[in-house]
Design brief:
The chain is α+β, with helices and mostly antiparallel strands. Helix content is about 35%, strand content about 20%. The strands form five sheets. It has a five-stranded antiparallel beta sheet with strand order 11-10-7-12-13. It has a two-stranded parallel ribbon with strand order 1-4. The chain has a two-stranded antiparallel ribbon with strand order 2-3. InterPro entries: mRNA_cap_enzyme_adenylation, mRNA_cap_enzyme_C, mRNA_Capping_Enz/RNA_Phosphat, NA-bd_OB-fold.
């Protein structure tokens, strides 16, 4: 009997088309008894590190980004890779691989759009860019030094959705009626999809409605998921209507009103891919200027330190008074006595 070929788990498989991949995820979720589709379904699993806030119990949050990443690479990634290089047979026992998430210069936008993003989309998807300040410490919460860019069509908001079905008055002539005289909701009709955002804990404010076609309503019902009071991710179409993108079963709440306002500002600004590419030369000029200024400041600091040390060790004269190696004459006389 021939043994079946065991797949190499360190090789990346062929990425399925989105519709087929979604079907696979649903089937696997059903077999595993899961409600969420957001679980790893491909090998190898990789843990990408893009920041390091605490290392061996020591906080690095006050350090700048380049220093935080340098600590991680030197203290974690370097010995980690060295261990697996020395003992390659141990790779088969690891639950996942650890890698540093590569970063690019802020002006390398054309390369990002033309080369890197198309490549990573085949592996794990990509929905935008994050511009992180290299020279600032980590800030909990909203950081004004970090910019997130998404294609205009992918700027989305997570809402809490509540359904309002039309109310029907009972028809006394309806032979199939149950004899009730009270109005009742018509669950066969398309409801109004009310959208809400968070103002404060357990306090929601309305933020419009979601447009749904008859075909989309049938698709939503076919999902066989609770829709009323669910969290939905929506985008704005060309007619400025909120449209359904997906259920967010991984989220417990809608976006805060401040986040929504920020997203709305991004939607209205509509900075596209070509806009960023056109801005790249100016970004590069500014980057080079800052780098030159930083280098000059570093050289000045080194020169000042050298002069300071020279004045502290005057070899007979200077700030510490006369005497060998900065020892004053009084100290020398005391030593001789």
């Amino acid at each position: 009997m021939n043994n079946p070929t065991v797949p190499d788990l360190d090789k990346i498989g062929i990425k399925a088309e989105p519709q087929l991949a979604d079907q696979f995820r649903r089937e696997v979720a059903h077999l595993l008894g899961r409600t969420s589709l957001g679980f790893p379904g491909a090998q190898p699993l990789k843990f990408y590190v893009f920041d390091c806030l605490v290392l061996d119990g020591t906080s690095l949050m006050h350090r700048t980004l380049d220093k935080r990443l340098a600590y991680f690479k030197e203290k974690v990634l370097k010995p980690y890779n060295a261990m697996y290089k020395k003992y390659p047979s141990e790779k088969q026992h690891r639950a996942f691989a650890v890698e540093d998430k590569s970063t690019q210069f802020s002006y390398g936008l054309e390369m990002m759009f033309r080369e890197i993003i198309p490549r990573v989309k085949k592996v794990h998807g990509n929905d935008g860019l994050i511009f992180t300040c290299r020279s600032t410490p980590y800030k909990i919460g909203t950081d004004e030094n970090i910019l997130k860019w998404k294609p205009p069509g992918e700027n989305t908001v997570d809402f809490r959705m509540r359904l309002q079905f039309p109310i029907v008055e009972p028809d006394p002539a309806d032979a199939d009626g149950d004899g009730s005289t009270e109005p009742y909701p018509d669950y066969d009709a398309i409801p109004i999809f009310h959208l809400f955002v968070v103002r404060r804990a357990n306090d929601y404010v309305p933020y419009g409605t979601m447009h749904v076609t008859e075909e989309e309503w049938e698709t939503l019902k076919a999902m066989q998921k609770p829709l009323d009071d669910s969290i939905v991710e929506c985008y704005k179409d060309e007619q400025h209507r909120w449209r359904f993108m997906r259920l967010r079963e991984d989220k417990m709440d809608a976006n805060h009103i401040s986040t929504v306002e920020s997203v709305m500002e991004s939607i209205e600004d509509r900075v596209g891919e070509e806009d960023l590419i056109r801005a790249a030369p100016a970004i590069k000029v500014a980057w080079k200027r800052r780098q030159a200024e930083a280098d000059m400041a570093k050289h000045r600091a080194v020169d000042e330190e050298r002069r300071r040390r020279g004045s502290l060790v005057p070899n007979g004269t200077g700030a510490m008074g006369s005497g060998m190696n900065g020892i004053g004459t009084g100290a020398k006389r005391k030593f001789e006595e």
